[in-house]
TrEMBL record:
<keyword id="KW-0489">Methyltransferase</keyword>
<feature type="binding site">
    <location>
        <position position="280"/>
    </location>
    <ligand>
        <name>S-adenosyl-L-methionine</name>
    </ligand>
</feature>
<dbReference type="InterPro" id="IPR023267">
    <property type="entry name" value="RCMT"/>
</dbReference>
<dbReference type="InterPro" id="IPR049560">
    <property type="entry name" value="MeTrfase_RsmB-F_NOP2_cat"/>
</dbReference>
<feature type="binding site">
    <location>
        <begin position="259"/>
        <end position="265"/>
    </location>
    <ligand>
        <name>S-adenosyl-L-methionine</name>
    </ligand>
</feature>
<dbReference type="InterPro" id="IPR029063">
    <property type="entry name" value="SAM-dependent_MTases_sf"/>
</dbReference>
<keyword id="KW-0808">Transferase</keyword>
<protein>
    <submittedName>
        <fullName>RNA methyltransferase</fullName>
    </submittedName>
</protein>
<dbReference type="GO" id="GO:0003723">
    <property type="term" value="F:RNA binding"/>
</dbReference>
<dbReference type="Pfam" id="PF01189">
    <property type="entry name" value="Methyltr_RsmB-F"/>
</dbReference>
<dbReference type="GO" id="GO:0001510">
    <property type="term" value="P:RNA methylation"/>
</dbReference>
<keyword id="KW-0694">RNA-binding</keyword>
<comment type="similarity">
    <text>Belongs to the class I-like SAM-binding methyltransferase superfamily. RsmB/NOP family.</text>
</comment>
<dbReference type="InterPro" id="IPR001678">
    <property type="entry name" value="MeTrfase_RsmB-F_NOP2_dom"/>
</dbReference>
<dbReference type="InterPro" id="IPR035926">
    <property type="entry name" value="NusB-like_sf"/>
</dbReference>
<dbReference type="InterPro" id="IPR006027">
    <property type="entry name" value="NusB_RsmB_TIM44"/>
</dbReference>
<keyword id="KW-0949">S-adenosyl-L-methionine</keyword>
Length: 443
């Protein structure tokens, strides 16, 4: 039974102003509901709503984590849930009511919540949120879904329904069958991947992946693993380890990590013995980066700066540019990305990526190496940026399959890296990354 499916003991009671009986408090579902309304109604990213909602509802860490998983499960199956509910709704309900119904359905169909709990808590939620007139509808609809839902699911093309049309079409360019493979990869909660500090011992129960990452079951709380406080490892998806690996930093080299927070790639670079400078602009993320580097105790210089204007004291031997992007490659960990991002968001992101590619030239020694990386599946942010870099005067330095002997299929004919959530399907999948390597030509 998952954390969010456990029947909860009412801790306090809140009285609805609609004149109904007092409703039991349920911070898990209150927080999940707020997160989902933020995504669906305001295109707000899950992480941006979570802290505020958890504070508003006085949700302790356990409820916060359960709310996160419940909201993520609803978002992961949202296309399916909308379609499945359609025949049970004679009139279009207000969007918050639909959100509550989808959350109830997700519990019934994907989280093994007992029907009485899924139905009862949804009815209570609507009453707490001044949506009491829809409580009867929710009761009737969710009871029907509990009965008929599993059979109805079998007739639905869930992979197709759970991916917005514009993303599905954009992924067709990745190859025949790839959009469906990606959709399948996204449909499961992602496991926890960690990268071990050299010489550290893997926590018990972890699976060693071919790239050296250690994979733990979804829902594992990283801070509770032995070795976390001592800095024995850091959180990093298996695919996210590849760009820094392909930069091939050497002991003593000056290496800049542009756009560094929360610092997974910074840690990888520091572990090689290179002299690493981590550049990050966002103050909140900078704090996380500093905390992570302090926990890992690596001698990294952390700089608060804009990567488009930062000037290093010495020209660098190598640069990793992990540019801000649409993050569509991380949809299995952040399914809100699917419903928050729009095609028009790409314009500003692409302009920023080009500005960083241009600026990085002046930071590097002639002959120095640059790896450009994005956790995006979008052509505009990947191959198109690699071509733009060549037009800016960068010289191509293609990756070879021999550099990734455990994943040669991720190296494209152009010598770029392309991973996606359809890869390593038998092992629990991986995030989508694009990377390309360049050399700064001699002047
Ligand atoms: C994809 S994330 C980096 C992930 C990181 N490299 C890692 O492996 O943990 C992109 C980061 O770029 C930062 N960023 C965005 N614009 C920036 C800029 N102009 N200069 C420096 N950092 C920037 C964001 O705050 C964010 O932390």
């Amino acid at each position: 039974m998952t954390a969010e499916s456990r029947p909860r003991k009412p801790r306090q009671r809140s009285t609805s102003r609609s004149g109904n009986a007092p409703q039991p408090a349920d911070p898990t579902r209150d927080v999940a509901f707020d997160i989902l309304c933020g995504v669906v109604e305001n295109r707000r990213m899950l992480e941006n709503s979570l802290s505020r909602a958890a504070t508003d509802h006085h949700a302790p860490p356990r409820d916060r984590a359960a709310a996160h998983r419940l909201a993520a499960a609803t978002l992961r199956h949202m296309g399916t849930l909308r379609t499945l509910l359609e025949p049970f709704l004679r009139k279009e309900p207000p969007e918050p009511v639909r959100v509550a119904l989808m959350m109830g359905c997700a519990q019934l169909l994907f989280l093994e919540t007992p029907p009485h709990a899924a139905v009862g808590t949804t009815v209570s939620l609507l009453r707490r949120r001044k949506l009491a007139p829809f409580a009867g509808l929710a009761n009737a609809v969710l009871r029907k879904v509990a009965d008929q839902g599993p059979a109805l699911l079998e007739g639905l093309d869930q992979s197709r329904l759970n991916i917005p049309q514009w993303l599905w079409s954009s992924w067709n360019g990745l190859g025949r069958g790839v959009p469906r493979a990606i959709a399948r990869g996204i449909s499961h909660e992602a496991p926890l991947d960690i990268t071990l500090r050299p010489g550290a011992i893997a926590p018990e129960g972890g699976e060693l992946l071919p790239n050296g990452s250690v994979r733990l079951p979804a829902g594992t709380r990283v801070t509770e693993l032995p070795g976390y406080e001592e800095g024995a490892f850091w959180v990093q998806d298996a695919a996210a380890t590849l760009p820094a690996r392909l930069l091939n930093a050497q002991p003593g080299e000056h290496v800049a990590d542009l756009c560094a927070a929360p610092g997974g790639k910074t840690a990888q670079l520091a572990a090689t013995g290179a002299q690493v400078t981590a550049v990050e602009q966002n103050p909140n993320r900078l704090t996380r980066l500093r905390e992570n580097i302090a926990r890992l105790n690596y001698p990294v210089e952390v700089v608060e700066a804009d990567a488009t204007t930062w000037k290093p004291n010495v020209l660098q031997d190598a640069i990793l540019l992990d540019a801000p992007c649409s993050a569509t490659g991380t949809a299995r960990r952040h399914p809100d990305v699917l419903w928050v991002k729009r095609p028009r968001d790409l314009t500003a992101l692409v302009a920023g990526q080009d500005a960083m590619l241009e600026a990085a030239k002046a930071m590097l020694k002639p002959g120095g190496r640059l790896v450009y990386a994005v956790c995006s599946l979008q052509e505009e942010e990947g191959p198109a940026r690699a071509r733009a870099a060549l037009a800016m005067g960068w010289q191509a330095s293609p990756f070879t399959p021999e550099e990734l002997p455990f994943l040669p299929e991720a190296i494209t004919p152009e010598g770029w890296l392309r991973t996606h959530p359809g890869m390593w399907a038998d092992k629990g999948s991986m995030d989508g990354f694009f990377a390309a390597r360049f050399i700064r030509p001699a002047d």
